[in-house]
Amino acid sequence: MCGRFTLIATPDEVRRYFRYDEQPNFPPRYNIAPTQPIAVVIAGKETTHFRLMRWGLIPGWVKDTAKFPLLINARSESAAEKPAFRAAMRHRRSLIPASGFYEWRRVGKEKQAFFIRPKDGGVVAFAALHECYQDAAGNELDTAAILTTSANRLMAMVHDRMPVVIRPADFAEWLDTARNEPRHVTELMRPVDDDFFEAIPVSSKVNAVRNDDASLISPISEPLSLDSPPKEEVEEPAPRRSQGDLFSE
Fold first, then answer.
1. What is the pLDDT of residues 86-112, one digit of tens each?
2. In the β-sheet with 29-32, what is the strand arrangement from edge to edge?
């Protein structure tokens, strides 16, 4: 599961990485949480486009959103068959820009938060699905979910799932739903190499959605190594329905 992530790259760095035409301006975010607006990159006729969407996918057939579960993640292995994700997996694949994400594991009697980021820094693209939900009054809401896959060897020390990462060389193939059915992009949803990410222990301040500053990603000890002891089982903090704005300072 991926329940919190960051986007701390500059707007220009993100735009160059994904090559969309829009030039949005947004501040760094250190603790993006479910139901908040998130940056999503979608396919266009000739280029990609930047959009803001609610983190938490709502299929078009939902009648009462209050009774529908919060779908922030979709399992890549089964998304093409699940009613909630089937249509989006076939027709509306997208990318979510991120600088890293958080996961938790138990250390003794405590839950230790880890900031998981690319070893080489920079931006990554999480594989995503999106839907435009329309309520009974005709109001539209763009929504999205992050696709997950099984953990690689490093991530398995913290959690058994991780976001699917799409490489820039594979953006076009992933986004081209006209030519590529879900079965054609299965190989793109494999876990990244064991040494792609590093897992950095960070403060428990990240547990509270209201905290959103650079101190959240400051290391409190050395990163995990592939020789670290195995993880203990732990449940992540329950997602909170914060309505913070990606573009608010």
1. 999 999 999 999 999 999 998 788 899
2. 29-32, 5-7, 100-107, 110-118, 197-202
| Residue 230 tokens, joined | 């195995």
pTM (2 decimals)? Answer: 0.91
Short-list 58, 216, 75, 81, CA closest to 139: 58
CB atoms within 10 A of CB 241: 11
Which residues have a catalytic role annotated?
2, 103
- State the sign of the Cα–Cα–Cα–Cα dihedral 104, 152, 71, 32: positive
- Measured CA distances, 249 to 6, 55, 145 (Å): 15, 19, 24
Measure Cα distances from 152 to 52, 107, 158 in Å: 30, 20, 10
Question: What is the CB-side half-sphere exposure of residue 102 using CA atoms within 13 A?
Answer: 33
Q: CATH classification of 4-101+121-198, choosing from 3.40.980.10, 3.90.1680.10, 3.40.50.720, 3.40.50.2300?
A: 3.90.1680.10
Cα–Cα distance, 117 to 197 (Å, whole number):
5
